[in-house]
Design brief:
Blueprint lengths: L1 E2 L10 H11 L15 H18 L6 E6 L2 H11 L5 E4 L4 H10 L4 E3 L19 E3 L13 H10 L3 E5 L15 E5 L10 E6 L24 H35 L4 E2 L10 E5 L5 H7 L3 E2 L15 H5 L4 H4 L2 E5 L6 H17 L3
Parallel strand pairs: 1-11, 3-4, 3-5, 5-6, 6-7
Antiparallel strand pairs: 2-8, 7-8, 9-10, 10-12
């Protein structure tokens, strides 16, 4: 199997797995202790959590705190709903974790358009009274990198908070400057599933959305998993150390893929993008048949979170593509553990399978 779906999830880094093992805990070890307990094993588990928190924080701007959550979706719910904001503006191509949460808070929330390259306008002037703006750093479907610093400045001029979904960019690109809250997910940067985080700038006040024991600085109740925290921390540390090397490797993979799939049309910006995301279309392509013909190549027809809906991608339609064009698009995602020969083999087979359909 050749795995080309890195936007859906990434392989667990061996270093992250090793960091987790002592805290998975069996009856003959103390690694199973509750990190919220006051005894010595509990304090040791708590120390592991705090070490991981510092490792994750090192990926993010100074002057803020990291709140561990069960996922980036939970982190974004805490940021948006917990802010108390009731007049919202979000980009039209946000992940459902932002769009659905924003619309639940304000059904008439402003949707910021994007151009044909999938980019929001950094010179946007937000309406007076806007209280919160949310724009993602890197789009999960088409890989475009938004002008988040300019948009954060525009939000602040309007008196609004700026929330950034950095799930696809964290550990790959510099943290979005100017954001008031940043959400990230461990399993998108070679860490374990089941844990995310929200970075909150000092001075920003939130109301908890999960109530109970008041763990996680009073903002997120529930027992933390030291194993998941340790894996997240180790993955964040590794991503920070390897950022340049990973980017160079992904750039090489991108060039190999584009050379082979030169006749395919790229969806989204060529320049303002993370090159580990390659969203392409061939008009008339039957994507379901393509995927069936290539069952040992794992790739996507769009976002894993929305697969199976039968609807055209809201991201691709926001670019101005018609339903047929959107449904003739595929997303290839690759990263640290993808080999050049794998991308060359997979792309050659994808192109041949498409040609066999007569497109």
């Amino acid at each position: 199997m050749i795995y080309l779906d890195y936007q859906a999830t990434t392989p667990l880094a061996p270093e992250a797995r090793e960091a987790m093992l002592p805290w998975l805990g069996g009856p003959d070890t103390s690694g199973f202790a509750n990190p919220h307990s006051p005894h010595r094993p509990g304090r040791a588990a708590a120390a592991a959590v705090e070490h991981a928190r510092a490792q994750v924080a090192a990926l993010l701007p100074p002057g803020g705190r990291v709140i561990f959550t069960g996922s980036a979706t939970e982190a974004l719910n805490l940021a948006i709903a917990g802010s108390g904001a009731r007049r919202l503006a979000v980009s039209a191509i946000e992940h459902a974790a932002v769009l659905d949460t924003a619309l639940a808070v304000q059904p008439a929330a402003t949707l910021l358009p994007v151009d044909g390259q999938g980019l929001a306008d950094g010179a946007t002037v937000f309406e007076p009274g806007t209280q919160l703006v949310a724009v993602m750093q890197v789009n999960n479907e088409i890989g475009t990198v938004q002008p988040v610093e300019a948009l954060a400045d525009a939000a602040h001029r309007a008196g609004a908070l700026f929330v950034c979904d950095a799930v696809q960019g964290a550990g790959k690109l510099a943290a979005p400057a100017g954001a008031d809250m940043i959400a990230l997910s461990a399993h998108k940067l070679y860490g374990p599933k089941g844990i995310g985080a929200l970075w909150v700038r000092d001075g920003v006040s939130l109301q908890p959305q999960v109530h109970g024991g008041g763990q996680e600085q009073g903002l997120r109740s529930g027992t933390l998993s030291p194993a998941l925290c340790a894996g997240f921390g180790a993955a964040a540390k590794l991503a920070r150390e390897r950022m340049e090397a990973d980017a160079a490797h992904v750039g090489e993979l991108w060039q190999a893929a584009r050379t082979i799939l030169a006749r395919w049309t790229l969806n989204g910006s060529t320049e303002a993008r993370w090159p580990g995301n390659l969203n392409l279309r061939l008009d008339g392509l039957d994507v379901a048949r393509l995927m069936s013909d290539l069952r040992d190549v794992a790739f996507s027809a769009g976002s894993a979170c929305a697969s199976g809906s039968g609807r055209p991608s809201h991201v691709l339609t926001a670019l101005g593509l018609g339903p047929a064009q959107a449904k003739s698009s595929v997303r290839l995602g690759f990263g640290r553990y993808t080999q050049v020969r794998e991308i060359e083999d997979a792309c050659a087979r994808i192109d041949a399978a498409a040609a066999a359909q007569g497109v």
